[in-house]
Design brief:
Elements: H1 2-13, H2 17-42, H3 48-71, H4 79-110, H5 115-138
Helix pairs in contact: 2-3, 4-5
């Protein structure tokens, strides 16, 4: 635990702790997505499209919880504020999903890029977009927003 505190302190001094936790939980989110996807395929024998939708949904819910609690440490002061944050999170994740699909199509079909390079490039854009969405449009500090009390 002492090593954890030292690493956290060094990263906080350099204003990198939030980025580190975002990437750490993003990696865990990816693992959740893959695990649920193959669980759906292998255990339940679902079609890959259904497995993809289910795994995306579970991983987005996992990402919401981890981003809210540990990455951006957002504390909703009302039910309405919580739902508002959740709705924005889902909206921007759907937007990044559309970006992902659109970029993949553009890079593969129009620019004839290989699937691997297109996916790597697209995922870098999606991770950056999701971080920006989360930091500036979803998990805003409570003192910067007005909330309805419930």
């Amino acid at each position: 635990m002492n090593l954890y505190k030292k690493v956290k302190h060094v990263l906080e001094e350099r204003h990198l702790w939030e980025v580190f936790t975002y990437l750490f939980f993003g990696g865990l989110t990816t693992l959740v997505n893959i695990a649920v996807h193959f669980l759906c395929l292998d255990l339940f024998r679902w079609h890959y499209i259904v497995a993809t939708i289910v795994s995306w949904t579970v991983s987005v819910l996992f990402a919401f919880v981890t981003n809210k609690i540990w990455v951006f440490q957002s504390k909703s002061t009302s039910i309405m504020a919580w739902w508002s944050e959740f709705a924005r999170f889902i909206f921007y994740r759907l937007l990044s999903l559309a970006m992902d699909v659109g970029c993949m199509y553009l890079l593969i079909e129009v620019f004839a890029m290989s699937n691997l390079f297109a996916k790597i490039f697209t995922q870098i854009l999606v991770v950056l977009a999701n971080y920006i969405f989360s930091k500036f449009l979803i998990f805003q500090k409570n003192d910067h927003k007005t909330e309805l009390k419930n």
